[in-house]
Structures are given as C-alpha cells and as structure tokens.
Write a structure and sequence with these properties.
Four copies of one chain form a homotetramer. The first copy, chain A, has 14 helices and 13 strands. By secondary structure, chain A is α/β, with parallel strands linked by helices. Chain A has two domains: 91 residues, Aspartate Aminotransferase, domain 1 (Alpha-Beta Complex), CATH 3.90.1150; 241 residues, Type I PLP-dependent aspartate aminotransferase-like (Major domain) (Aspartate Aminotransferase, domain 2). In chain A, a hairpin with a 5-residue loop joins strand 9 and strand 10. In chain A, helix 6 packs parallel to helix 7. Chain A is globular, with a radius of gyration of 20 Å. Chain A starts with a strand and ends with a helix. Chains in contact: A-B, A-C, A-D, B-C, B-D, C-D.
C-alpha cells in the first residue's frame, strides 16, 4: 500500500546497505572504536566545519535525547523545552525516567521564543525560593520541530544570546536535520547551526539509515566518560560499526543532503497537489511533514488506500492527519497520492 | 589482521544482509509492529515450542538486561546474580541506574548454585529485619555464562525448583544462546530451556545479526505496557523491522543453530591446537570462548599478529587472554592461529 | 520580630512538647512500630470515620508527596496536577527524581477542573500513539491549595467521578488540611474528604507539630511493603515514636481542629484589617494564607518590622507578598500587624 | 520492660527537650536557615577544629547516606563499602534507588582493609574494559562499624593514603560517632577523624536526639546547591530549627561526649557481667553493641524479660542476639540485666 505514514517506514538508502555488505567481514573492535566510526566522524567534522568536534553515534532519537540530556545536566537541573517538544510529549517519560524535569514553555508553531525564555530565567533567578525549584540547566529545541517548522537564523541567534547570558547549553534535536537544512525556507547552513548550539544530533533513522543518530559536540566538551554513561543507559551498541559505516556513507559525496532534498522536493509537489485539490490544510510547513484536516467519513475511504498518521481530533467529525515524505519517496508515489485525493 | 577478539567483530551473516536488501523498500509500520517482526515471532515460537510465548525485539544485551529486569521487578526488589555476571560487572551499573540492586551470590565457574540460592532465600525471610533490605525479586543467569560454561539440565532444574518455591522468576541472558545450545556438552534443547525459565533472550548481536536480541516470555506474562517501558528506557527502535527481518532470517531453515554450530566446531579445533602446542590453558570451556595464560613477553609478539581480548592479569608476568570463535570464524582462520602459536 | 512569614516559623504546640517529655524514657520499638504510633492511628481512624484505614507517619511534605506518588504509581505512569501544584513548582523535582512526570493541567486559583481532567483523559486514550506517552496514573490535588483556596464538596465530587471512570486514584496533599477543614467556606467534613479520595495526608508540620505528616489510605490498599519503600526513599524515621506521640496528642480532644481554627480566626481578623486599612489585596482566601500587593518602596519599611514571604513580582515597582497565620498566631500579633500597616 | 534492643529505643536527652521547649515560640526562618542551626554549626566547627567546615543537618541515617553519596558521586560512579556496611545490607537499596552501585569489599569485623582497597583500584584501572564498569567514586566506612568495631588511627590513615592516591573521597558514617570516640580503644580525636576524611556525619538519632544527623564537610567543598539536592531527595525539613536546637544543645558543654561516654561505661559493665555469668560471647566490641550466642530454648524465657535484637541464626538451635547500651542506659538497668542472665 502507498505510505506517507512517516519518514521511517522503509529501510535504508541502497548505498548504505551496499557499504554494510562491502565492509561486512572486516574484523573491527566494538563499541564505536572501529575504523568506520573514525572515518565517519572525520567526514562529519568537515561537513560541520568543526575540526574540534567530538562525536558519538547512538541508535535512536529518544535514546539520544535521554542520554545527552542526562549526561549534560546536573542532577538538580531540568531541561527547558516547548510544550509540543518530543521529549515533553512522545518519549514515554524517558527524561523523567533518568530523573530530570522537562520545564515547559509555550510552543509557537513548535518553537521556543527567546523573550519567553529570558522571562523564565529572570523569573527563576528573581524568585527568593528558587533553590526549592528545578534549575533550568539546558535548552532543548528541535530543528525542524515536531510540527515541521524551522527556526530562522535570527530566531536561533536570539535564543543563543539568552542562553549565553545564563550559561545555558543549547541542545538541538536533529532527528530530521537534513529535511530542515534542505528546506527552501532554511537560512542556516550546517556549520552555522553547529555554531549556534552546544550539542546537536544529525538524525540518521529518519534520513536514510536503518538506525543511528550522530551526536555532535561542535566545539568539544563531551561529558567525561561519555561511553560509560551511554553504556549505563543501555545505549552502547556492540557493533558500533553498523552506525559508523552508515554515517560514513551518508556523509560521502553529500549523500545526506541530496536525499534530504528529495523529501523536500516531494513535499513541495504534495503541497501543490493539496492546493490543486482544495484540500483543507491544517498546517503547511516548509519541511517534509504536512498536515490536513479530513472529514472522518472521507478518512475511512482514504485509510484503505494510503497510510498516514493520526495527528489529533479536530472536532466532532474531522481529524487532523499527517502525511510525510522522506528520502525514499518517489515522484510516482506522489502522483498516486494525487489520484487518490 | 586475524581476529579472535570477540564474537561481534564482524557484521552480519550474509543471508541477513540479503533479506534486509530484499525487503528494504516495503513500507511498514514502525516500532516492531511490522510484518517481519510478526513473522519472526511465529518462527521463534515454533523453535521454542511455546505457542503462547510473548516476544519483543531489542537492540543490545545490556539494554535488554536493563529493560527486562526493570520491567519485571517491583521497585523495592533486586535481582540475584553470580558475582561474575555481566550485569554485576560489565554493564556500567545499568541495573542500578534503573534503581535496582544486584544481589550477588558466589560464582562457580560463572554459575549459580541452587543450594546457595536456597540458603540466601531462607536467610532473607528468616531475618526479622528483612523489610529493611532489598527483596530478591528475580534470578538472573547467563547461558552460556560469561566464562563460557553451561548449566546442565539438572542444575537448571534445581535452580528452577528453588525459584518456584519462592515465586522468583528466572531470567536467562542468552546473549550467546546458540553457542550454548550447540555445545557438545549441552543436554538441553531450546524448548527445555524455555520451560525452565520465565523470560530469556535469544542473542542476535553475537550470533549473526548486525544487532538485536529477542526477548521471549515463554508462557506469556510480558509486563503490561511493555512497549511503553521499552520506550521509557530509550530502547524502542523506530525501524523495528531491522530486528524483525534479521530474526526472521535467523530462524528460517535452522540458520541460527547452523551458524552457532560453526563457532563450536571452530572452538573445538582451536582447543585441539592448544593441546598440540602445549599452550597453558586457564579455562577450557565447552563453548566458543577459550582462555589462555600467556607470558607478557610473548604477548607482545602475539598482539601484532592476532586480536584477542585481555581478560585479567594472572601474575606479575603473565596475562589471561580470551580467544573467541563465532558464526563467522573459518577453518582457515583457525589454521592461521595455529601457525602463529 | 513579628512574623507572618509562614505556618512553620515556630516549634510545636505546647501539649505536643509536653507529651514528648512525658513519654520520653519509655522504651519502644523503632520505625513506627511503637505504641504511640498505634494509638495515634486509632485516633485518626476515628476522626476520619475510616475503621479500615491504613496509616503511615512520615516527616515532611515533599517527602510524603515523593513517597506516596512513587509507591502508588507504576513506573510508566505520571501524576496529574495543577500547574501551580507544590509538586510541580516547589519540590526541586522530587517527583521526577523518583522517575515520574508531573502531567500539568491549568490552575484555576490553584484548583483542577473536572472537565479539563476528563478532556485530558479522553485525549490521552483517544490518541493512537498514547503508548508512547506517559500514562496518567494518579491525580494530585492540595486541600487547601498552594494559593489558599478550597475545593467545594461539589468540585471534589466531580473530580472523583472522572477519576472513578478512569480508575485513577486521587491523592490529596493535606499539608494544611486543618486550615482547610476549619475554614468558614469549607463544606466538607474530614470523613467526607476521606471518602472522596484514595490516599491523603494530614499535615502536622504546619499544624502544630515539630514535624510529621500522617498518610491515610482511608479504605486500606496501602502499597505492599510500604515500610520498605519508605526506607528506600530514606524516609523511615528510626524513632517513629516522635511522630506517633505528636499525632496522638493532635488527635486527642480535637486539638488538631481547635488549633487549626485559631489560624482561621486570626486570618479573618487580618482580612478585616486589610479592608480597614485599604490594603491592595492580590488574593483574599478562605484559609490562613493572604496575599497583598505592596509598593516596593513601602516593602523596604515593612521588611524591618514584620517577616512575610515574597510571592512574586507584580510589576516594575510592586511585589506580591504572602502573610500567613498559624495555630500559634495570637490576637496580639495581629494587632501589632495592624499597627504597622 | 527492660530494653537493650537498640540505641534509639527512647526519646531525647532531657536537655534537648528543655531547649526545644525554651525556644519553641521564637519565630525563625525555615529550612535550616535559622539562628539555632547557625549556632549549632559554630559549635560543631569548634569541636572538630575545622573553621572552614560546611555543615548541613539531616533527619536520619539512611537518608543522610543516600543524600551525601548521591550528591558527591558522578552519575557513573559507585561507592565502595564493606560487605557488612549498612548501605550494603540494611537500607532497602536506598543507594541503588538513587542510581548508584555499592561496590563491595570483604568485611574484616566490619572494616575495610587499605590493601584490599588498593588492589581493587589497581585492578579497576588495570582493566582494559573499565569504562564498561562502575567507577569507584567514593569510599564509605562507618565509625564505629555495624559490628561495633573501630578503625585505629593507623588503619584510617592507611585507607586515607590509598584514597588520596586515587582522588577518592572518604565518607564516614558516624551514626554512632560518639560511642566510637568515647570508646577506651579509640585512639582518634574528633579533629583527627575530621582530618582523615572528606565528609562525615555526627549521629544524633542514636546519641541523644529525637532525630538528626549533622553532615560535616570538614574543609568545605559541600556539593553545589546542596539544599536543592536535599529537597529533591525529600529530605529537607521545613522546621530545620528542630535539628539546630538539638545539635546546639548536644555540643554545648561537651554534652555529646558526656552522654556517649555513659553508653560506653554501661557497656563495659555489661561485658563484665557476661564474663561473670559465663555467657557465650559471639563478638565482644569496644563500643556500645555487644553480641551473645544464646540457646533458642533460653531465648524464649529471655524475650519475656528483656528486649534485644535478633542478629542472625548461629546454628540449628542457637541464635546471635545483640544487646545495646545508649546515652540513656542506667546502672540500674544493667543490674536488672545481670539479675536476668
């Protein structure tokens, strides 16, 4: 069946599978200390223009958020995030499981607002009893956000300034980083983004890999004994090579950006179709996730022809659904969707 | 370089890579709800002769131990294990990270002894102040053990009887399960092993997969909302299909057992070479891990020719090293080792 | 200096000190298994009209919230609370420290609204991906609230109905329970309140004791091995008698209610003075906490004459302060405050 | 009934109750920021000859162990302790609850041995895979130990030297500190003990207080935001004055030492009686805990006349019991015990 359910509904980009096959029987040391991980790190440093970056490969998004946040925070600190943030909503409490509170700020189309962050920090330190409260110890934001939106360079710079003033590290969840960077609306390069945060990750799972996220500390400063902490979270892959080989391939000849662009191009085609067909759009976004409002009666027909994901109930007899393109979406699939709508 | 460093030093069995390639572009739902996971579960149920089994695929060994133990225990309970157990020594405190104590019993070549377990339980409940102590809530054992040894059917049955008396579930860490089952010394079948425990896992990472462990609750009773708990641990793979496809292949036409047998056959050849060469054996085991005592001066030469793993210092000028075969070890590689020794 | 800073600014009611002195040298078993705890429990059961209640004495409020919530929740569950709840704001993340998320709902003068709770539960179970979210496992509310307000019998009954429908236990934080029950606005008796929740605590620290909170499971159902869980939280007092003696005294001859009423009477006098003096009231409440808006210039003078607590900045040059009466506040002290204002 | 059950079976020294009564109605700020806590800290600094000490008052022993260990350790570190240590056996897993492993070393009459500690550290850092293990991050010892024994100055100095070499802080659990310092066998003064560790606590609960332990960082270095961390553990007492007043009294005119000496004197009398009566001694100790081996048949009679505590089964028909003196034990009570034996 045709599927626009999400951006992890198929396997890996063929070049990654090919590299896995080619390197399959070369013996390597485990736990990410292999040659492929080393090579992949060099390529990523180049792509980020961060020669002093420290990099670690993890397996999935929630795991990465949990490990990075827990490793960077002091025990008495929490992480600031938008109410719609993945860590606040859809990670089954993985942050709290490791002992930290998610300190929520309002979501503006999925984004944090620098002035609200500043006000929060002023309120916190202005409160006589703040030692009885959770200390804000890090700011989490996603690029693109969970709603497919993007921070502009100005917005990110403003957040960065507030964070600098309070010595708050910024962590960017880049589960869909490629789709953000290749969006027409994006005015940030990868090196610029790396320069505006303290740690971020380059999503592989949703951008062409079987699994894998590359955590990047752009100017170093990876928490001490990070490998031990990763292991303690149950997140250390014995065959770290699996991640290394894939990221090595993704960052060879710009593959990561090329396949990310495919998702954006297909999303643009999809948006054009929505306009053409007069679909009721809930949120049109500059990236690979698009949202429609559909009558529940119509939804029944649709669900037999195309896989989508339920977003939320809109009202009594309408539902918001999400349609997602990816590195693997073809022009043909978009045309099939057109025929269905 | 020749490597007997461990059983996760190469990629996956070619049939698994092939199946990953063949199924690569079929869209599937995420999080282990895909068709491949479903098919793999059916094959595993058959292999275990457990039609009511409940099965979940996780990524790695420490992760599996942490998730299963935490999900099965009450908050005030700990897990009983041998002092040499992987969870007691080499998981960076992953069990304690999730709040549970590892209650250690002496190791007998890596194994627990039923009478010592019984004595521990009697002592615990005989102690007036046991409500001030950690309740033993589960017994963890590994098959094969971390030292390459195996429980006999009698030993496992005795442990099982003590556990039944105290309503203690038994959890078997089967990271190397295939190598145990195919050992010449093993007098247990997979269905028999499944019948003597409450939950176990079938190791994939060390037996032919890129990654992946299959957690099996042989008679059902998987903890409620297990998926949520897995997610909370950061252990839920978006592309669960990656694990499903691989286990489906491993349990097609007995591949898992066939490749496990290869490791055992190569280990037997290796043991013969040790005898022939008069090597000083620290521990000869019935499975795929063998241990030698080597002079430190000799070790320097050796380390340039073959990768092994450091086990422990034996004395001032000797070291215990571990040499490991796997599903991928060839007769040629064993002969090369012979030439070196 | 005159102090209306809070309701824990002096020691204990003299009758409690006297009882501590009288019983001081009687040897007793530790950990709450003493005769005084037993006697106090009987008196509390009577006061609550709950003959099957199970009761445990703890030391302080945050500790009690942490222990009760953690002991009652499954690991994958969180606790629903108003945004202004003590557990959401002023407990330094004690709930998250034990692994649970506080699921916030809007605060209506410190209170939860039954229809919003219902909507939250419907949204949760209506969401296809709710297994990726934190399960609401308990509802926390405070009586009186952190803002000094009270639930009416109707409001509490409505919340109770929603909770019954979703099998959600209700936990009432009664750190200031006496002040709530003795308020003129209160239309609930202690037995009625006990009947409308699943667990609550009777605050001692703020109502006449040196320390101590009595956790009451009105119809039984205290979590198994509760003593062990309390110990695990570091919350088990060796000399449990200290709590038992005090609660025994508090529930002898209605002392708890009598001294609670004193705080209410003094608060009513204070409110009359505010009206007489034309003070700018931020929030007038039916219990023992009152809130004023004061010019910052005026505050400087005030702070030399009377201790109050900072609540929040109102605007550029005004501050909200809190003035609190307690079981110990005298008519003379209120008159002194009058002279100062 | 006559009770030698433990050293927390009665209330507080009368002078402490008197001070609580005298100071009862003086308004004070909460959370340990009151004048009494301040005064008590000054007295303790003097007694320890540590003018730069940082001090915090907590309520009970397990709580103190949990808070101090968790606050001082990094997340990936565990605490080294003897197998018989209170934290290893009788705290219901409170250390693991906060995420840290207790790394056990053999107990020599309750004590750690410096050479075994050194060997453990050498083994740890000599192990190639130590980043997969729990890092030893602190050494815990109790003075006196759980078995009533004492470290000599030499023994403590040797441990200290090993710890210095590995930058391992030493934490001394002084739940019964006074009884150790006043023992005839003790060759350490309080300032000397303070000089040989990094943090310790002065037990109040077992030495004359209703509750309370004084945590001392003798040369400063209290973990940042310690109050917040205490609160996060649910361990912050609102009426911190209760602890301050008591420790102020205990350290006025040497009361702490004087009443500690009483326990030792009574224990010496008890030991003389055991010799006189030919009691079978399991362990004779230099402090206030003594252990006898008693026939089970005889125990039945005994248990009706005197409260003791069960220690462990000795063999089929004998039991080890513990008899404990305290600050409150009188000569008359010891003579009554003599009559019974």
């Amino acid at each position: 069946m045709l599927s626009f359910e999400n951006d992890y509904n198929v396997g890996a980009h063929p070049k990654l599978l090919q590299r896995l096959a080619e390197t399959n029987l070369e013996p390597q040391t485990g736990y990410g200390l292999d040659d492929f991980c080393a090579a992949a790190k060099e390529r990523i440093k180049l792509a980020c223009a961060c020669p002093n970056a420290e990099i670690f490969f993890l397996t999935g998004g929630t795991q990465t958020n949990q490990v990075v946040i827990d490793a960077c925070l002091q025990r008495y600190e929490g992480v600031v995030a938008a109410q719609t943030a993945h860590i606040a909503q859809h990670e089954a409490g993985a942050i709290e499981f490791s002992g930290h509170k998610v300190l929520e700020l309002p979501s503006h189309d999925g984004k944090l607002c620098a002035s609200e962050l500043k006000a929060m920090m002023e309120r916190f330190y202005g409160d006589d009893s703040h030692e009885h409260m959770v200390f804000p110890g890090m700011v989490y934001l996603s690029f693109p956000t969970e709603l497919g939106t993007l921070y502009s360079k100005t917005e990110l710079t403003e957040l960065n300034e507030v964070c600098r003033a309070y010595a708050l590290p910024i962590f960017i969840d880049g589960a869909r980083l490629g789709y953000g960077l290749m969006s027409k609306q994006c005015d940030l390069t990868l090196p610029e983004l790396a320069g505006l945060c303290d740690v971020f990750y380059i999503g592989g799972t949703k951008v062409g890999a079987l699994c894998g996220e590359a955590v990047v500390f752009p100017r170093g400063g990876m928490p001490k004994y990070f490998l031990t902490r990763v292991k303690q979270h149950g997140a250390l892959l014995a065959k770290g090579r699996v991640l290394g080989v894939q990221f090595d391939a993704l960052f060879t000849d710009g593959l990561y950006f090329e396949i990310s662009k495919n998702a954006i191009d297909r999303a643009e085609e999809m948006k054009a179709i929505f306009r053409e067909k007069g679909c009721r759009v809930w949120k049109e976004t500059p990236t690979n996730q698009q949202f429609l409002i559909v009558k529940d009666s119509e939804l029944e027909r649709l669900s037999k022809l195309v896989a989508y994901s339920f977003w939320e109930k809109y009202d009594e007899d309408h539902t918001v659904i999400r349609l997602v393109t990816s590195w693997a979406t073809t022009k043909e699939q978009v045309q099939q969707l057109r025929a269905i709508l």
